[in-house]
Fold Hca operon transcriptional activator HcaR.
Amino acid sequence: MIELRHLRHFVALAEEEHFGRAAERVFVVQQALSNSIRNLEEEVGVPLVLRTTRRVQLTPAGQEFLIGARETLAAATQSIERARRAARGEVGRLTVGFVSGLAFGGLPEIVRTFRELYPNVSVDLREQTAAEQEAALRAGLIDVGLMLLPVRDPSLDSRPLWRQPLVAALPAEHPLARKRKLKISDLAAEPFVFFPRHLRATYFDQVMRWCASAGFAPHVVQEAIEVPTLLSLVAAGVGVFLPIEFFSRLSLAGVVYRPLEQAPIVEIVSVWSRPQTKNPIIIAFLQVAEQVIGPPDQPPVDGEQIL
């Protein structure tokens, strides 16, 4: 069987044209090199070198074999390097699921930085609800999920990325828009627009509990499944909305955003399947995400609640 060491020995001998110098080059004794070349010729079945007292010359068969030997060694070197880069998470493919809101803050910065640092990793993005991401992670359809807590599947691991408070989205001409900061009780008499509960149950219930603690139940007059649609309803004066703060990056004519006192905090986490914990590409992506976003804040105080 021809081994890579045989090819390395042969190439060294062909280039040095001397057994002694070739042996020194590949760090073996001369007899070992001679035996290696003899074994190689036996495997090939034809003489590859002409041995004289002064120098070594290649036979015509040896000259042709040298071309292939160099190509094989180069290919082997490339394969080794690709394997090492894959082990470092520098090549491959990564499929990332994300909840829709992250497209307006966080996700673009993470993906842009990751692609700059790991240009040989192909990144596939899929917009999915948290439930869809959990199912996709179990099925191996995505590698990493970015979602809001809670993660309900105990077979999945998660890591906090960043935390965002809720803010109030108001029609630009609304009287409350003149205030710099609001209390949730300021919105007690306002009509609300919101997600259907079945799409954002944890989010929905937490907001309802927060409002209840302020002594009112929000009157939801219109539902929509996408944040841009809900904000368009706000701009039209249909109602007010309580998005996560990074939605305030979505500038829409007729909508203003105001901070809320003691607003609930939404925690965004990265999630992956436990068997993939040591996947180097996932590790690299999580490290980039933490570098871009920064460490999550300390647990909330003064009555703040985590969704």
Q: What stands out?
A: Confidence is low (pLDDT under 50) at residues 298-307. The longest strand covers residues 156-165.
